[in-house]
Amino acid sequence: MPPKFGGGGEKCVICEKSVYANERIEAGGVAFHKFCFKCSECKMQLNLNNYAQDAKTLYCKNHFASCVTAKNTQAPVF
Fold first, then answer.
1. How far apart are CA 33 and CA 26, in angstroms?
2. Which secondary-structure segment (H or E) carries 27?
3. C-alpha to C-alpha distance for 66 and 77, rounded to whole angstroms
4. pLDDT at 77 over 70
5. From the centroid of its chain, how far is CA 54?
6. Alpha-carbon distance values, 27 to 19, 31, 59, 63 (Å)
7. 32 pairs with which residues across the strands?
8. How far apart are the first and last CA of the chain?
9. d(Cα 52, Cα 37) in Å, to the nearest integer?
10. What are phi and psi of 61, to 5 degrees?
11. Tell me, what is one Gene Ontology molecular-function annotation carried by this entry (predicted)?
C-alpha cells in the first residue's frame, strides 16, 4: 500500500486544511494560513500587529472593541 501524503501536520483553525511552514502564521498558540488570518466580521486581512483574538476567533481592533469588549462590559448597577 503506498504511503499517504498531506494528511498530517497542523490544521488551520479557519479552513481546517493543512498548514505548511511557508504559509503559516501563529497567534495565541493556534496555527492559521496567512490568507485565512482575517477579521471574522469585516474580513480585513490581519497581521500580528493589528489583530485581536477571542479564543480562536480573529478580529480587527475595531470589531474586537465592538463585538467582544462591549459584550463583556457590564452596565453599572444603581
1. 9
2. strand 24-27
3. 21
4. no
5. 9
6. 14, 7, 12, 17
7. 25
8. 71
9. 11
10. -60, -40
11. metal ion binding
CB within 8 Å of 18: residues ≥ 6 apart: 6, 7, 8, 9, 10, 11, 12
The residue whose grid cell reads 463585538 is 67
The pLDDT, as a whole number, for residue 78 is 55
Per the document, the length of the chain is 78
Query: What are the φ and ψ backbone dihedral angles of 54, each rounded to 5 degrees?
Result: -125, 105
| Cell triple for 31 | 496555527
> What is the predicted pLDDT for the residue at 3?
46
Dig out the grid coordinates for 11 from the structure.
490544521
The answer to whether the beta carbons of residues 52 and 68 sit under 8 Å apart is: yes
47 close to 61: Cβ distance less than 8 angstroms: no
Tens-place pLDDT, residues 12-70: 999 999 999 999 999 988 899 999 999 999 999 999 999 999 888 999 999 998 888 76
Pairing of strands 57-60, 51-54: antiparallel
